[in-house]
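I am writing to request your help with a piece of structural work I have in hand. The matter concerns a single protein, recorded as an amino acid sequence and a row of backbone structure tokens. Could you please explain, in whatever detail you think fit, how the structure tokens follow from the sequence? Thank you for your consideration; the sequence and its tokens are set out here:
>
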Amino acid sequence: MHKWYLHLLFAVFCLLLSACAHAVFLRELLNDRFMAGPNDGLSQMLPFKKLLYDQYTSGEFFYSSLFGLGGDTFSGLAYYFSTSFVFLLTVIAIFLLESTGIIGTPDILFWAHAAVFINIVRLAAVLFIGTALFRYMKFGPIPAFLGACVYAFSNIYFRHATYWEFFADAYLWLLLLVFGVEKILREKRSVWFMLAVAVSMIDNFYFAYINFLLVGIYIAFRLLLPLEENETPKGTAISKFLISGSLGAGISAVSFIPAVYAYLNNHRPPYAHDIPWFGFIDNILFTSSFVVLPALFVLLAFALPLYGERKFRFFVFLVLFSVILHYSPKAASMFNGFSAPQYRWEYFMAFAAGGAVAASFSSLNRLTLKHIAVAGGLSLLLYGLLASIDPEIGVNQLILSLVIGSALVLFSAYVWTLQKQSKIGQAAVLFLLALGILASGYQLLLALMEQGRTVQLPLFLGVIGIALFTFMLFAKAVCDEVYSKATATFLVLTLLFSVNGSEYVLLVIRGETQTVTEELITGPDYSDPEVLGLIGAIYQDEVDPLFRIEWMEGVRNNTPIALNFHGLSAYSSILNEQLLQFYLVDLEIDMGRESVSRYATLGKRANLHSLLQGQYSILSNEDPNVPAGFAAKHESEHLVAFENRYSLPFIRPASAVYSEEALKTESVLQREHAMLTGVVLKDTDISSPLPPAPKKLAYELQGENAVYENGVLDVAGETGGLNLLLTEKAAPESDLYVSFHLENLAMDAFFPLTVNSYRTTRKANVSVYKTFADDLTIRIPADESIRIRMPKGLYQLTELEVFEEPYDVLKTEAAKEQAVQQVQWDNSRLDAEYLNTANAPYLTMPIPYEIGWTAKVNGKKVDVLEANYAFLAIPAENGLNKVSLVYRPPHFYKSLLLSLFSLIAAAIYWCLQKTRND
């Protein structure tokens, strides 16, 4: 049989095995439940896939006006899918299916259905490549495959694939990097390592960083503990790692440099809490959601004769070192870029455990009955110890530890019967092993019932079927004397059963993926038919396409992407720093919910709505807090779409120029007026006289179930706070801007905050998602008193100021005669014509500023200026201005040149290496 045909059969086998490993999620899919987390899965993974697929298949690769207020998707979403090889291959496959009419246009629901199949194919590739890697390391076919299964069927793969699907790609690239390391150490060939580095850095800069740390650990162990005689000398190997790694990094530049720039141009507060060196994070023998060490590895790690085998010794030491790192929050912080501790790298421990199992499986003949008895006893002792000291271990887990211990003893007995060549003994032990599977299955059923789930008959029959199949297969194996194949089959079946049980308990039940249903995705909690009707009515009436709608479902800031409309919110781990500063610092815009990695709403501030093309706001028909100047346009049963009566044009001339520095000490409201009457520039020597300061209102303080002294508010009642009694009434149609600095003096208290009819929430100080932007400006309709309320507790409340906003400035700007303008904004390209009759020196646009924008006015290149804190402006000429704006990711062409240069250098280096090796 041809070798390629065997490889094809093995690939199909890996695909079937991977499907078995996803059996729980395939069953969930039959019930219209999906392999996606209810939080980031729905709020980020599915919308970003839809956004990027729509872009790529329409020929747009760099920018989207749907991404929040507009953003770079090539760089900004490089952390997710924009340069992921798995996603790009998925796009090609789905586009071919769509083009041939096999499927319709992919929407959010399609991507939810597709998730489990994408993960099945990826895991099959992990099995195939993992087996090939272990075979290259001179393991036999069965040990190599068994090691790949231990790596592939670990909890962390399914955790990653379910909640943050792009994380799972790291499973593939770690294997390629290790293969590249082995090629250098064994054959002095460095092309594979160079390609693996390039692929890793192109695919995802974040996991490239993690994988490089892991491979650095692997290389250090390999140099200290050689696996073969006559390996490449250490000095030669290190030079090859450095040279080929540098060339691989250079090849990746076109993707990696823009991605890293986006990461550096992101804003996230530094982690403000102490990180201990060590701590009991979880129990990696029983209940860890990251990785549970296989019981077989634990048993064999105590089998001392196996340490005479180099490969076994190497991989066991690698696992033990990984365990130490796992229990170090400092190490978890290091793997997360020295930020908050995150446990995302433990797949390396699973890989090392797979290598140890493969090595031990090749050397079972070293063990005697004495060795097996000692190893089994020590294993039972370790399991019992961890079960007794872990407060989260319950009765079911203790029973499970006994089941695991019994299985270890039985497996030990089976190894002993191999030594004695006793077929009767083997048959007896194999029968007991099948009973052990039944016992484990019964324990799983107990655990599921303890979770309050109704266990269905097919699951129980499946447990019995697996046990009987195992016994029959083993019996046949004993007769045919194919002992190793039978044993490997038993272990793989056990891994499959175990990982499906973990998926069900840890992900479906506790992880609440059971709530991610077709009904949710198409229903009012995610895709409200009422909202869709209002949005459809708005688009049917609107002629000008450059407007935005303020609406998002709950806390899903990427609702505009999911529902395909231009909104005012975004949620991504990497966002434009200028925009985040605009919200958190410069304009102090409350988002209704404090959290990093997000921006949303405009605090119902009419000035900002007009400046940023916020033409519509969809609100509950019971919400009394409507932005000033907005009137009801479309209504449904529970919602109203309000239209802005004080809209401003997309391109605005600016004659008055203000500097950020001059406005630094002024009120937030005066900064809004400056943006309305002119342009605020970051670095400028020109500064016009500032707009008149807004009227500040005096007030008297009155405690409400609270005592306020020296800037500290002590709320004694269930809720309480301060009343600000205005000594002068504001005009009836005015708004009040209430500014203050607020900190909760309790470290771990999340709390709601209300100011009259406005409600928001603030994170606890210990939360990793706290912004630490504690200067707030809340807009409310005019009232005689201002009622600030929060729960019982101690707060620092200072810098209280109240300003009146009658909107005279906005009304004046909105009433001005608008110059002729034609604008066509197609994501990464904007073409416009503007008749500058006022001879204004600048034109401003509500497009977020990023250094990737280039501009031409009447065919001449001009500078793109950072204006109005986070947006762009360009110099203008008198009369007609033909404006052309083009976006390319930061340093894109320089990065592309570096990639091409590195490719040429890599080709030369490869030719030189080939000549020397030949």
In short: Residues 263 and 791 are 37 Å apart (CA to CA).
